[in-house]
Amino acid sequence: MLTKVLIWVAVALPVAAAMEPWAALLHGRVWHRWLWLVHRSHHTARRGRFEHNDALSFLHAPIAVALILWGCLGEPGVLREVAFGAGLGMTLFGVAYAIVHDGLVHGRLPVAALGRLRTFDRIRRAHQAHHRREHGGPYGLFLGPRELAREVAARRATRAPQRSARPGPSEEKTSR
Ligand SMILES: [Zn+2]
Ligand SMILES: [Zn+2]
């Protein structure tokens, strides 16, 4: 049993972590482009309890359920345990995403207390920045603050050479 649990944990954690860049990629490249008609409902005021975008949130659920079912009912062996771990990791990410994104950021679940923790507050602010721009990052949720920080650093880096290209006060004096 211990070996099985170790396999589940060893597979579930990296799968859950990999879901963040995957979700960010889908959000930026697919939701905000080809599926904007559906995702737009998340960027406008919600009328009622649900929005069309909720359908996108459940897109990965059948895959996770299938992996877990295979992990429970499939032929005994390592592959079965790996499938179970992968399904578990996807579910873990889905639950965490629902709590933080839908619950904390959009107030759809009673988890406002999480916002008192600095990390969650930074995640919330980064995602709110995404909502202020119609088509602009950060597209990731948990790594949203990092995306924002990278963006600021890149902006500074592009401005810096322009500033240094202009003659400084001492250079101006010598050229007169
Ligand atoms: Zn969006
Ligand atoms: Zn949102």
List the helices and strands and how they pair.
Layout: H1 2-34, H2 36-39, H3 54-57, H4 61-73, H5 78-105, H6 118-132, H7 144-165, H8 169-175
Helix pairs in contact: 1-5, 4-5, 5-6, 6-7
The structure holds zinc ion (2 copies).
One zinc ion (ZN) is lined by residues 27, 31-32, 39, 42-43, 130.
Question: How would you describe the overall organization of this protein?
Answer:
This protein has 176 residues and is mainly alpha-helical. The chain has one domain. The chain has helices at 2-34, 36-39, 54-57, 61-73, 78-105, 118-132, 144-165, 169-175. The longest helix has 33 residues, at 2-34. The N and C termini lie far apart (82 Å). Mean pLDDT is 91; it is low at 170-176. The structure holds zinc ion (2 copies). One zinc ion is lined by residues 27, 31-32, 39, 42-43, 130.
Short descriptors:
176 residues; mainly alpha; 8 helices; 0% strand; globular; disordered C terminus; binds zinc ion
Write out the distinct hetero groups bound to the structure. Answer: zinc ion
- Oligomer state equals single chain
Low-confidence stretches: 170-176
Overall shape: it is globular
Query: Mind describing the biggest β-sheet?
Result: none
Q: Helix share of residues?
A: over 70%
Q: How many separate structural domains?
A: 1
**pLDDT averaged over residues:** 91
Instruction: Work out the helix count.
Output: 8
How many E strands? Answer: 0
* Helix and strand pattern: HHHHHHHH
Based on secondary structure, the structural category is: mainly alpha
- Cα-atom radius of gyration: 22 Å
Provide the β-strand percentage band: under 5%
Distance between the termini: 82 Å
